[in-house]
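Exam review. A common question shows you a sequence with its C-alpha cells and asks you to describe the fold in words. Practice with the pair below. Do the first one on your own.
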Amino acid sequence: MSGPDIDDSAKNAPEPAITLSVVIPAHNEERVIKETVRNLVTLLKTEGISHELLIVNDNSVDSTQDVLAELCRQLPTVRYINNRGSRGFGEAVKCGLNNFNGECVAIVMADGSDDPNDLVRFFRKWSEGYDCVFGDRFNKNSEIVDYPWPKLCLNRLGNNLIRFLFLISYRDVSNAFKLYSRNVATDLYPLESSGFNLTVEMPLKSIVKNYTYAVVPNNWYNRNAGRSKWKINETLAEYLIIVWKCWLEKFANRK
C-alpha cells in the first residue's frame, strides 16, 4: 500500500518488532490528545505489550502538532505523521494504515471516548487467534456515558438495518473501536470511505471476506473537551452508500 509523505518524526520509527499498533486520527485535538496518549502508553507498558502509538495529525489548525511532537520526545513508543491528503476521519485512518508497523492494528479515538483497558482486552482476544476483534458498546457488560440521544437513535436504526442486510448478530458495526490483523488490514484495500463511514466499511468487508472475528464489550465516554467531528448531515448518505456497496460485494464473493 502506498501512503502520503510522512513527517521526520515518523522516519525515526522504533526498530524492535512491534506486536500492537494503535492508530489515532487527530484533527484539532490539542485539549485531549495528551491525556489519551499517556493513558494508553502507561497501560500498555504496564501490561507488557510491545506497541507503538501512531497518531495521524489530520490537517489540524490548532497546536495539535506541537503537542504530538512533545509526546514523541517524551515517549519512545509514540510517533506521529501528517496526513497531507484530504482531511477526514477515513482519510486519516487510511494514512495510518499505510504506515503502521505492528502485527495487528487497533483504531482508537483521540478524544478519550475509548477505554484503554478495553484495548488490552481486544489485544488478548486477538492473541487467541482471531483475525479481528470488534467492540460492542451496547452489551449488558458495557458502560456508556452521555451518549447523545439523536446520535443514539440513528445508531440503533442503522445497525439494525446492517444486521438485517448481512444476516449477522453483531449489533455495533459502526463502532470505530476495532482491531485487525495486519493481513486483514492489507486485504481490505482499496478502501473507499473518506469520513466516518470507514467505521462500517472495514468490518463489513472483513465479514464479507469471511475473516474470523470476536465481539468484546467495550465502554464509551463522551468527550469532556473539544468538539466532535461527527456530523449527521455530512455522514448519513455516506454510510448508506458504503453499506450498499459492501452488500453488493457480499453477493459478488459468492460467485
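Now try the second one, then compare your answer with the model answer below.
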Amino acid sequence: IISIFIFSIFLRSNIQKILLEQIGIKLSIKENMLLFFAGLSMIITPGGSGQMIKSYLLKEKYDCPIMKSLPLVFFERFYDLLGICIVILATLIFIFSIESLVIVSVLIIILSVLVLIIKNQNFSQKIYSKLKKIKFLSNLLPDDSTFQESMLIMSNRSTVLKASISIIFITLLDGVLIYFGFLALDVDIGYLKSIQIYYTSLLLGALSFVPGGVGVMEGSFTALLSKENLVLPLIISIVIFVRLTTIWLATGLGVIFSYVFSKKNSENNLE
C-alpha cells in the first residue's frame, strides 16, 4: 500500500511538472516533488483550495508571479475529479449503482460548466478582481492578464489530452491501493466494487466543500459499505484504515516536506 501510494504521488507530481512547464516554469524532479508535497499539506482545505500555497512558494523561491501559477491548483483539482468521474463511469458498465450514477452525473455537469467558464475572459477577470480584495493577496497580485493567459495555456488541447490520460491511469492505480486496503482487513468485494464505493464517497465529500470531505466522505462510505452485509465495526475499521492510508498520510507527508521546502528557502535567502 505504501509503495503504491509513493508511486502514485510521483506520477501526480509529474502532472504538476507538465502544467508548470507549459507556462515556462521549469523545476528539477527534486524541486517539483518538494513543491507537490508542500501543497499536500493543505489538501484538507475546502476543495483543496489551500494548495494555493504552492503559488506563494513559487513566488518566494523562484520569483514567479502568483497569478501566473495560480491556475495550477485549479487544473490539478479539475483533472483529479475528471479521472474519478471516468473511472466510476467505467465501473457502472459492470456494476450498476444509482448513487454513483447520480453523483457522477452532477459532477460531469459541473466540470462541463467549468470548461466553458475557462474560455470566458470576463469570468476570469471577475475572479481576479475578487482575489485582489483579499488582504493577503492584494499586494502580491499584478494588474495584468497573467492569470487568464496561464488558464488558456494550461487548457490547450495537447496538455489536456496528456494530463487526462495520466490521471485516468493514476486513478486506477490508486484504486489498487484502496482494494488492498480492503484485503488488509480480510474483506474482498472485488476491485471494481471497492473503487466504485470509495470514489463515489470521495465525490460526495468533494461536493460538500467540507475541508477534506471529513464527515461527509466517511458517512457516505459507511452507508454504501453497509449494503455489502458487513458488520458495523468492520466497516468503521475499513473507513479509518483507507482514510489513514490516503488523505491523512498525504497531509502528514505534506506538512513535513512543506517545512523542508520553507527551510531551504530561508537558508537561500540568508545566503
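Model answer, second protein: The chain is about 80% helix and 0% strand. The first helix runs from residue 2 to 22. Full marks require stating both points clearly.
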